[in-house]
Amino acid sequence: MSEPTAVNRYESASAWREVDSYFVDALDLEDEALVAARESGSRTTMPNAEVAANQGALLAMLVQIAGARRVLELGTLAGYSTIWFARAVGEGGHVVSLELEPRNAEIAAQNLERAGVSERVEILVGPAADSAQQLVEAGVEPFDLVFIDADKPSNPRYLAAALALTRAGAVIVVDNVVRDGAVVRADSGDARVEGVRAVVEDIANHPDLDATALQTVGLKGWDGFLIARRR
Questions:
Q1: H-type alpha helices, the chain
Q2: Which pLDDT score, from 0 to 100, does residue 10 have?
Q3: What are the residue boundaries of the structural domains of the chain, listed by start?
Q4: Cα 199 off chain centre by
């Protein structure tokens, strides 16, 4: 699960891309609605930043394994991963997705409608930390799974919000934690790397969280994700 942008693309070896493509095709992971959502990502403020199809399927499987019915997503973009979540929670489930840019939220809404899951999804537009705080103040029902995939310098704030909005047994997934290997560089000077390292430290020091992190390679290059569970 990686976060390439127009100005900062992780390199993806041809063999990695071929393997990802093989599994996506062999397992028939994408339908027309998902393909359309992925392609519409080129019209968002961060083109080509959506998760790969096999990663979206993994997120959906995590929802199903955890028995999650309520999902909080920080970072909507074109709604590609949002569709995976909305399908995974099933009828009666609910996804709240936080998106900074109105243009992205509009594109996502169209994609959710095309996928037939718009009634399960609520998109809140504005800074994710502010929207999350509003959810806390509103006393919403706790979420079963939180996917943190917004601006990386704010990762520690997003983790704090996730902890305020979940209870024991909830799963928290933090995307883009390897950053082409830069995560090991304490002196990188990159605010995104610093945000990742800070949230890793916060999770490691939290008495109620168990966690691990995995590197990934594929269509999106070299990156990875961290998964934590509240005890």
A1: 14-26, 32-40, 53-66, 80-89, 102-115, 128-138, 155-164, 191-205
A2: 59
A3: 14-230
A4: 15
What pLDDT does 11 receive?
75
Residue 80 is which amino acid? Y
The packing angle between helices 53-66 and 80-89, to 10°, is 30
CB neighbours (10 Å) of residue 88?
Answer: 23
Read off the amino acid at residue 183: V
What is the spatial distance between Cα 194 and Cα 185, in angstroms, rounded to a whole number? Answer: 9
Residues of the chain with pLDDT under 50: 2-9
Q: What angle do CA 78, 146, 215 make, to 5 degrees?
A: 80
CA dihedral of residues 123, 129, 133, 135 (deg, nearest 10) = 20
CATH top-level class of 14-230 = alpha beta
pTM of the model: 0.94
Q: How far apart are CA 81 and CA 221, in angstroms?
A: 18
If you ran DSSP here, which 8-state letter would residue 5 be given?
A: -
Q: How far, rounded to the nearest angstrom, does the alpha carbon of residue 226 sit from its chain's CA centroid?
A: 11
Q: What is the 3-state secondary structure (H, E, C) of 94-138?
A: EEEEEECCHHHHHHHHHHHHHHCCHHHEEEEECCHHHHHHHHHHH
